[in-house]
Write a structure and sequence with these properties.
Layout: H1 2-38, H2 45-67, H3 82-117, H4 133-158
Helix pairs in contact: 1-2, 1-4, 2-4, 3-4
Length: 160
């Protein structure tokens, strides 16, 4: 059940990231066309693309965790027995889970700090705090994915 929740959250974040990427491409193309043909760039386009990037990247990272799309160099580990590799995998997942939880936690703290500061963008005066929360949400989702993977690895390595 936990694995299903993690997978669905990852898919939701991935879908949102895909829509944001399409919107970024459309906005950039529109800005370039307006600048080239009418010498009137879209005001705040650069800011909007930056804010969209603040959502796109963390949501994509959560999807990457789900798909196990990260880079693994196992040349050194191939010389170990399967059980040793499994234990090293458990340790690696545990460390990554800890760091992922710290990132989510610190982003949540940063969200409230920026919200209380009232910080806004320079051109469009858009509040900045809503664009900090996607990182916290994405890394909390990634932590859930890692927790599922850790539990699966422990079950596979040490029995049910």
């Amino acid at each position: 059940m936990l694995a299903t929740i993690a997978k669905r959250l990852s898919q939701l974040l991935s879908g949102i990231a895909a829509m944001i990427l399409a919107l970024m491409m459309f906005l950039t193309a529109l800005d370039v066309c307006l600048r080239y043909f009418f010498n009137r760039p879209l005001a705040g386009a650069f800011e909007l693309v930056g804010y969209m990037m603040a959502i796109l990247v963390p949501f994509s990272i959560a999807y990457c965790y789900q798909q196990r799309g990260h880079i693994v160099v196992d040349l050194f580990l191939e010389s170990f027995r399967a059980k040793t590799r499994a234990v090293i995998d458990i340790i690696t997942i545990s460390i990554t889970l800890i760091f992922t939880l710290i990132i989510a936690w610190q982003n949540a703290i940063h969200f409230f700090e920026v919200k209380h500061s009232g910080l806004t963008s320079a051109v469009l005066s858009i509040p900045e705090y809503p664009f900090i929360s996607p990182t916290a949400v994405a890394f909390a989702t990634a932590a859930l994915i890692l927790l599922v993977r850790l539990l699966e690895s422990i079950a596979e390595t040490f029995g049910k």
